[in-house]
Every structure is written in structure tokens, then in C-alpha cells.
């Protein structure tokens, strides 16, 4: 029975998911009717175009935090990689942008295709890649979430576009960051770090008084 009705069941589930996606997209788009919310939405969407916000944040961190420069640069590279990957997937899937009833979208779009959201991909990648780097750990995750929501309020993505993009970005940053070695913790000036203490007294060595 299940095998016979399986394709029909899958088709019905897909239809329900598409309807739910569209209903939720329309509901979130209505939030943009508020002038203040619309202004914030436009600002977030424009700043996240081509991952510009996150690339600028990563390069700024690398320039101002010499002790963690390599980690900032690695995170910036992962954000760029995630964004490019999302662009490739988008061109392969070619899902059209939402055609929602009511007012037009709050922002223009670079392309016609919707899945996955490149904004969400780069935002999630930045939240993961920069989240462990102070002070970015305090602002990167909430700002990334705000950028993701802005694409829904702007009316240019379905929720599934944003969810898929966020998952792709987080996965890319997680996998790409596995090979990174955390920088040694630095102590106050004039005091040896744990790494320098180990090199000065290797295991099995002898101390001379």
C-alpha cells in the first residue's frame, strides 16, 4: 500500500511544503509595511550584497588584530567560498524569486533566481567563522540572523531559500575551519606564554639550578 501510494504521498507533502513556504513568505513580507522596518531591511540587504559586509569585517579584523590575523583571513576566505558555492547552486537550481501579492519587493536583486539565499549563506558562514574571534562573537551571530530575516521581509526569498543558504554557509565554515589551529593564548607583557614555557622546558628535560 505504501509503495503504491508513495509517489502520490511525496507529491502531496511537497505541495504542502510549497504552500507553507509561500504563506510564510507573504506574512513576513507584510512586516515591511512599517517604514522603520523597511528602512532597516533595505540597509541590511544592501550591506550584505555580494557578502560585502562580512568581507569588510574580516579584513578589518585582520588589520586591527595582528595576534589573530591568520584566523581572520581564513574566516574571510571561508565566507567568500561559501558565497561562491551558493551562487553555483543557485544557477543550477534556477528557482524563480517569489511572486508575492501586494506591494513590490523592498529591494532590487542582482539575479532572478532564489535558491539558496546568498545573503543567508555568507551571513551564516561569517557567524561561524568569526563567532569565536572576540569581539566578533558578540555581534556576528545576531547581525547574521538579522541579515537573513531582512531577505524575507524584503520579499525576495522564500523561507526555504534562507534556511538552505544558512545551512550551506554554516557547513562550509565548519568544514573549512576544522584544519585551523587556534592561536596560542597570550599572557600579559613580560610573562611567558604556555607555548614558550613548554619550549623552554621540553618533556624529559632537566632543569639546572
TrEMBL record:
Question: Which residues does the annotated region (Disordered) include?
Answer: 179-209
Going by the UniProt record, its keywords in alphabetical order are: Cell membrane, Hydrolase, Membrane, Transmembrane, Transmembrane helix
* Gene3D superfamilies per UniProt: Phosphatidic acid phosphatase type 2/haloperoxidase
| InterPro entries in the cross-refs | PAP2/HPO, PAP2/HPO_sf
**SMART domains (UniProt xref):** acidPPc
Chief location category: membrane
Organism this protein belongs to = Streptomyces lycii
The subcellular location is: Cell membrane
Indicate what this protein is called per its UniProt record: Phosphatase PAP2 family protein
One of the Pfam families matching this protein, by short name: PAP2
Query: Phosphatidic acid phosphatase type 2/haloperoxidase domain spans which residues?
Result: 73-177
Q: How does it sit in the membrane?
A: Multi-pass membrane protein
Start-end of Low complexity biased regions: 179-188
